[in-house]
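Project outcomes to date are best conveyed with an example. Our students and postdoctoral researchers have been running inverse folding experiments weekly, and each run begins with a structure described purely in tokens. The record below, which covers 212 residues, was selected by the lab manager from last quarter's runs and is presented without edits.
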């Protein structure tokens, strides 16, 4: 069930980002019964992450990546470009709980704002806990970017991303090391929210790296 929710609405024709349109964000919760949380939810993401509203937690307080090289594919889902690992890509430990890495995807511009500022791009690393006793099993690490120095992982994927532009084809990109994604900042924001696209499932642990 969780994996299905993570895939979300793979076909963007089911929704869009036109605020005033019939399939825009303000209408997502009306389009399907299983998407009702998009309208009625009380912990919806994205939000403005702010040191005035949230605790800023030092990285040493319990965020440890243990990622592995694994084969991966990329696909243009319309609302984002998604990189999915085929095998075991390792995990991240958050406050003693291990969450397995499933996929990551990029949004441009950023979905979250940081202290009121929207950045050029945002990366989401999506994880699921394999422990059935964990009440909320989804965890997403978010990193925001501004245009500047080339990103090592995006540079490696650039040819594949170009080849899927305008298509929904899923292609193999070979072995990808999630460790190339630099999640380790000195501080991060943490809050409970939701998936940012339908079905807008709540109970998602968000970790937003403070560093840009």
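After processing, the design step wrote out the following sequence:
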């Amino acid at each position: 069930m969780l994996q299905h929710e993570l895939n979300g609405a793979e076909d963007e024709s089911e929704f869009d980002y036109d605020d005033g349109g019939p399939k825009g964000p303000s209408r997502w919760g009306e389009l399907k019964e299983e998407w009702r949380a998009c309208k009625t939810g009380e912990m919806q993401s994205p939000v403005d992450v702010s040191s005035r509203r949230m605790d800023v937690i030092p990285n040493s307080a319990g965020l440890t990546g243990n990622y592995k090289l694994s084969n991966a594919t990329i696909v243009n889902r319309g609302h984002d470009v998604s990189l999915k690992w085929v095998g075991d890509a390792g995990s991240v430990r958050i406050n003693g709980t291990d969450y397995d890495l499933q996929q990551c995807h990029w949004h441009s511009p950023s979905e979250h704002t940081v202290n009121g500022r929207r950045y050029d791009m945002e990366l989401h690393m999506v994880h699921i806990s394999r422990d059935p006793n964990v009440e909320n099993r989804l965890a997403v690490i978010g990193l925001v970017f501004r245009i500047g120095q080339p990103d090592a992982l995006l540079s490696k994927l650039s040819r594949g991303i170009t080849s899927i532009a305008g298509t929904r084809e899923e292609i193999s990109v070979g072995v990808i090391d999630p460790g190339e994604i630099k999640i380790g900042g000195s501080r991060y924001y943490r809050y409970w929210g939701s998936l940012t696209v339908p079905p807008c499932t709540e109970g998602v642990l968000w970790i937003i790296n403070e560093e840009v």
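The longest helix spans residues 152-163. The longest strand covers residues 97-107. The training component of this project remains on track.
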